[in-house]
Amino acid sequence: MRPELVALCDRLGLEFSDPSLLERATTHRSYNNERPHWEPDVGDYELLEFLGDAVIEMVVTDVLYDRYCGHASEGDLTSMRAALVNAHALAEAARRIGLGSCLRMAKGEIQCHGQDDDSILCCALEALVAAVFKDQGMGMARVLVEGLIVRQLTHMLAQNGGDLRTPKGRLQEDVQACGLLAPRYVTVHESGPDHFRFFKVNAVVGENMIGTGEGKSQKAAQVSAAQDALNHQERWRKNR
Predict the structure, then answer these.
(1) Given Cys at both, which of 48, 108, 181, 211 links 127, Cβ 3.0 to 4.6 Å?
(2) Host H or E run for residue 6
(3) What does pTM read for this prediction?
(4) Beta strands per DSSP E along the chain
(5) Which phi and psi (to 5°) does residue 211 adopt?
(6) For 69-107, what is each residue's pLDDT tens digit?
């Protein structure tokens, strides 16, 4: 295996019986256009990503059910799962383990900061989970998902004061409880190349801007704007 993959396995406590699975999970489809002729074609992570998405959702759903059964509603659990399993959250988990530095991709992708792109990192993390699942089974895949993703639930709840709702869900319910229209999210600026976009989004109620946020995806910027609105409720509560 490549040295960076050996280091990744050491960090995560993984040992692959079939290292080609890990090679595939960390190979972007653009890489094969520039792959040296002597290097075997291991494919790319796209099919593994498809499998990993299902594994992650299953594990997170099962853990949330076991942990909160009898204490939370279906809506609460759905909100928690949405907060844990989305492109931005999975990309952040990938960054915490240094997955971006392990990715093989074309030089053009690297120049466009593809190794730090939310969408690419999310897909690569899903592929990594799938590779572990195929190589070592659901038990080890579950350990990996719990360590990388579910553990963030405690941090998320602490940030939200124990509120189980996502920032967008909290804002919508709180704003409508004040008799106001549901918030809209308006992209006011975007910049950067296709693979490294940067967005600025305003949360708007009626004609009033109540929050603003930035992020590497529209969804991340919307969440940031919703949180900003929650942090500055005087912007909209005074309009009741």
Answers:
(1) 48
(2) helix 3-12
(3) 0.73
(4) 184-191, 198-205, 208-215
(5) -165, 155
(6) 877 788 878 878 888 888 888 999 999 999 999 999 988
The SS3 assignment for 34 reads: coil
Contacts of 41 (CB under 8 A, 6+ apart): 32, 35
What is the DSSP secondary structure assignment for residue 181, as one 8-state letter? Answer: P
CB 30 within 8 A of CB 104: no
Decide: 214 and 200 in contact? Cβ < 8 Å.
Answer: yes
Task: Quote the CA–CA distance of 27 and 12 in Å, as a whole number.
Answer: 19
The one catalytic residue among 44, 109, 117, 126? 126
230 neighbors 216 (Cβ within 8 angstroms): no
For the chain, percent of residues with pLDDT exceeding 90 = 50
Q: Is 53 marked active-site?
A: yes
Catalytic residue among 53, 92, 109, 135: 53
Helix 218-231, helix 87-96: angle, nearest 10: 100
Number of Cβ within 10 Å of residue 51's Cβ equals: 16
126 in active site: yes
- Tokens 């002597």 belong to which residue? 38
- Do 222 and 213 meet the contact criterion of CB atoms below 8 Å apart? yes
Provide the H-helix boundaries in 26-165. Answer: 46-68, 74-84, 87-96, 107-111, 118-136, 138-145, 152-159
Chain centroid, CA 73 distance in Å: 24
